[in-house]
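Slide 14.
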Amino acid sequence: MFKKFAFLTTLLIILSQGTLMAAQLKDIKLQDTNIPVIFEKHKTLPIFNLQLIFQNSGYINDQKTPGLTSLTAKLLNEGTKKLGSVNFARELENKAISISTNSGFETFVIEVSCLKDQYKNALKLLKSLLDDPNFTKETLEKLKTLQLSKLQQKQDDFDYVASSNLNKLVYKNTPLQNSSLGTIESINKIKLKDIKENLKAILNLDNLLIAAGGDIIFSELKEDLKPILKTIKPNGKTNFEKIKISKTKDEKIDIKQTQQSYIYFASPFFIESNSKDRYKAKVASFILGGSGFGSRLMEEIRVKNGLAYSAYGYITNKKSHSHFTGYLQTKIENTNKAKKMVKNIVEEFVKNGVTKEELESAKKFLSGSEPLRSETFSQRLNRAFMLHYEGFEFDYPKKELEKIEKLTVEELNSFIKNHTEIKNLSFSIVTK
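Slide 15: predicted structure.
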C-alpha cells in the first residue's frame, strides 16, 4: 500500500511539473559575448539545476586521439587539486550537491544539482573545480588504468565488438569510427598536457549554452553565474560538417568463441535533424523496428520465425549524422537466414510501406508515452536544450504530436518510398 501511495505521489509531482512550468530563452551578456540561457522557473520543489553545455565539443573532435574527451570529462569528476577526489566528494555529499561532467558526441556538459538552500555553495564548488581541476599525473594514470581495463573487458562483450566493427565499416575515417572510450593504443598515449589542452579548447565561452532553473529568480542567477563565466574564455564559435555514412553495402565477419551470432546492421537515411519531415521519420522508425513487440523486425524475426529473442532497428537523426541501424542475436546456424530476413523486411517496408493498423497503433503509443519523456526537471531542461540546439521552438513536441495525429497512410508511405537508400544495408557479425 505504501509503495502504491509513493508511486501516486510521484506521479502527481511529475504531472504538476509538466503543467506549471515552461522553458524560456534568455541570455547573459558578458563583455562582447552573448550567452543563451534556457531557463525554467520551478515553484513546486525547492531545487536547483544547472547545465553548462559546450556545443560542438564532444568526442566528435577526438578523431586524432580517440577517448581524449571521455578522459577529460572523467578527470573533471575527480574534484580539485587542493582537496583531492575524496575530500571534494565529501564536500559535495555533506551538502547534498551533485556536480558531474559527461561528454556526448556533439556536446560536453557540466551539470550541477542541489536543493535551493545549497545553491550558493554549489556554485562556489563549481567555480573551485573550474579554477583548480585535479590535474595530477597520479589521477590521470588511475583513470587511464580504469579506462584500459574497461576496454579490455569490452573485447569479450560481443555486442560491443559487433557494434564497434559496424561503426568502423560504415563511418570509416570519420570521428564516428571509434567509441567515446577510445582504443587501448590511443589511451596509452594520452598525457596530462593533452588533457589540459583539450579542456582549454572545450571550455569556450562562444560555444556555451546554459540550461538552468529551479526555485530561483533569473536575475539573481544571472549575477551569481558571472564569476564562473569570467573564468571561461571566448575562443570563437566552432562548427562541424555533417558526417556522411558510407553509401555502399559492406560486411565484416569476426570469428569469436561465442555460443550465438551477434548481427548488427546499418544503412544511410538522408534527413536533416531540423527537417520538416522529422515526425514522419519518427513514426516510420517506430513501426519498422523501434517499438519492440509489434514492430516489423520483431514480429517477423522473433514472433513468426523464432530466430531471435529480440530484434530492433531505428532511425538516428542528429545534427552531425543520420542513419538507420539495428541489431539482433541468433543461433549460429541461423546467421545467414536472419541476415537475409533483415534485408527482406527493409526492402518490403520501402516497397509497400505501412498499414493503417500499424499507423494507428504508432499514433496511440507515441501520444501516450510523450509525458514520460520529461519526468524530471533535469530531463526537461535537457530536452529544451536539444530543441533549441536543433532549431525548434520549445512547443515543438506538442506540434509534432498534432502532425503525427493528422498523418495519413498515403503521406507516410510516400515518405518511406522516397528513402530507398535505407536498403543499402551493411552488416557486422560476430559468430563462431
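Speaker note: Residues 162 and 428 are 6 Å apart (CA to CA).
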